[in-house]
Amino acid sequence: MDFGLTDEQSLLQKTAREFVTRTCPPERAKEWDESDTYPVELFTAMADLGWLSLPFPESIGGAEGGITELCILAEELGRASLDVAMCYAGTFIPGLTLLRWGTPEQHERYLGEMMAGRARLVVAMSEPDAGSDVAALRTSAVDAGDHFVVNGQKAWCTGAGLPGSIIAMYVRTDPDAPRRRGLSLLLIDPNSPGVEVRRTPTLARHILGTNEVFLTDVRVPKENLVGPLNGGWEVMLSGLDIEKILMSAAYTGTAQATLDEALAYAREREAFGRPIGSFQSLAHALADLQTEIDAARLLSYRAAWLLAAGRACTREGAMAKLKGSETYVAAARWGMQILAGHGFSTESVMSFRWRESIVATISGGTSQIQRNAIARSMGLRSS
Ligand SMILES: Cc1cc2nc3c(=O)[nH]c(=O)nc-3n(C[C@H](O)[C@H](O)[C@H](O)COP(=O)(O)OP(=O)(O)OC[C@H]3O[C@@H](n4cnc5c(N)ncnc54)[C@H](O)[C@@H]3O)c2cc1C
What is the pLDDT of residues 213-244, one digit of tens each? Predict the structure, then answer.
């Protein structure tokens, strides 16, 4: 058993760490967040480094890396902020789904543009009345010969308003089938006639932005169907496995950076004539957090390893997502306590970390939904 990275992976990690320091330190991520700025140049720089081609096969212009390499980058970019990590990792959730289920023409057109940094893929599953219970989604796509006509409303579509976005949207193509059997995945250009994207005001996620998407008689060509018609549930499940693993890596990075910042403060700040980190109550909290973060990292890499090996990873992905997200929330909460008044100032990076952390246990499936999945894998009926 080997818990280490290869030389190539270590180099990738080092490059990414330097990239964050140079291009997107947390202070800058905070400024982007506060000014609702999406730094296009960041995505372009990632393309120039070859990071957007990383997990794709050479046959379509990729670099033949894997999910582990994506996790390394998601973790390092998470040191900047969760939103920065999602700027990178978010596009691979539908991107790898497209790789698995798409046609060669779709690979060439969409993944080619994505690898060049000109397109980013975003995913739209959720609706106002279909969040955790995503199979309740109602947005409909009706067969009209050489195209579908799509009507409905999506919610929380992260990144749909950004330049070059293509929406990977789950729709209902058979209203009479049992609810998990009548779904399909379509690729939709948000600039198509009949699509309106409206940004949702949120506590954080201001760099990518999250949006409602309204669809009125939108014509979507049949060649934009990904995977089998009415087979969208299996496609979605495979995408969710990828999402949980990539997000868990990002949470590990954000949690580690949060802890590092709290630790640095605890070493410097003095009270009662000694560094506050020497008080046992704080020292133990920091020690516990580092232990939790290491556990989260190991769960994340185990799940990535299973996925890369083509093995089932739904349970392990749920564990990684649950542990990573809850550890990030705990790190940010402790960070605020340790920085105390300094953290509560909205000028502090810690206040930004805390604000960003709240969504970790919600998006990509709530903690309750992850626990349900884990319990189900243990033979417990849990819904
Ligand atoms: C910032 C942000 C970005 C997002 N980005 C995207 C995106 O890009 N694409 C996308 O499709 N979606 C996205 N989402 C949606 C996200 O996946 C949903 O918010 C999430 O799945 C929860 O759904 P909900 O908010 O409707 O909560 P609900 O499903 O209404 O849940 C409310 C509460 O009930 C609990 N609950 C529900 N069912 C159960 C159950 N069976 N057992 C126990 N507890 C339960 C939940 O855990 C939660 O605490 C995003 C959300 C946010 C906030």
Answer: 999 999 999 999 999 999 999 999 999 999 99
Out of 33, 212, 213, 366, mutate this one to test ligand 1's pocket (max ligand atoms within 8 Å of CB): namely 366
CATH of region 233-377: 1.20.140.10
Q: Where are the domains of the chain?
A: 7-119, 122-230, 233-377
Q: Cα(31) to centroid of ligand 1, in Å?
A: 27
Residue-wise pLDDT for 352-367, tens only, equals 999 999 999 999 999 9
Architecture of domain 7-119: Orthogonal Bundle (1.10)
Q: What CA–CA distance (Å, rounded) separates 359 from 352?
A: 12
Question: What one-letter code names the amino acid at 265?
Answer: Y
39: nearest Cα among 81, 97, 94? 81
Distance 363 CA to ligand 1 centre (A): 6
Those residues with Cβ within 8 angstroms of residue 33's Cβ, 6 or more apart along the chain or in another chain: 81, 83, 204, 206, 207, 352, 356
Helix axes 349-357, 26-34, angle to 10 degrees: 70
- Give the integer Cα–Cα distance in Å for 343 and 354: 9
Q: How far is the CA of 215 from the centre of ligand 1 (A)?
A: 21
